[in-house]
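Q&A log
Question type: sequence-to-structure
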Amino acid sequence: MQNNSDMTAVILAGGLGIRLQSVVSDKPKVLAEVSGRPFLAYLLEQVAAAGFRDVVLCTGYMAEKVQDCFGRAYGPLQISYSREDKPLGTGGALRWALLDISSDTVLVMNGDSYIEVDLSAYVSWFFQKKCRAALLLTKVPDAARYGRVILNEDEDVVAFKEKQEGSGAGWINAGVYLIERSLIASIPTGIPYSLEREFFPALAGKGLLGFCTEGRFIDIGTPESYAQTEAFFCGKEQ
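Response status: OK
Response body:
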């Protein structure tokens, strides 16, 4: 039986957050405040609640502010930092963190979005499926901003559809991944590389699976979506 405390969780927290800088200019995106707490705290609490104990934060832009805020521990979590010297993209940042990853399977999360989900159920499903990589998917009424993920009846991801106007409801990438460490090792090192645009599309139809949930989802990538976070997390404060 899989024990989540034996797995490394990696949170991608190095983005510039250019679109958000008109409302959050003095700190990195992951430290944007929601009900008086940094957004990243909500992700760390979700990871801790699922039994994870080892977290790597991939930092870049204003990295020292993230480390000053969270230090080496948060509740039961032990935190280490993988700081990129130049922007490496989501895939490049994950590859850069490889030496800090101790488990054969890794939970990877985008640091600027949150999905209501039972992470332990996701992990259990992953090991039952015996796959090497998986995306957590959620259904939204308008997938135009995100792009769609297309599945077959066996939960295989078979295609990614680009963002397009008027696309209607669909399954989207919710930014929470389970990936075997050996696949992360295949990512080119030291150069910009995207999980969303390069890594996962290359795996479509080749064993990449999608775990579907209809849990509430939010990202803080734009001033408009960030403005909705207070209401989203209402009642979640500890």
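Response note: The longest helix spans residues 39-49.
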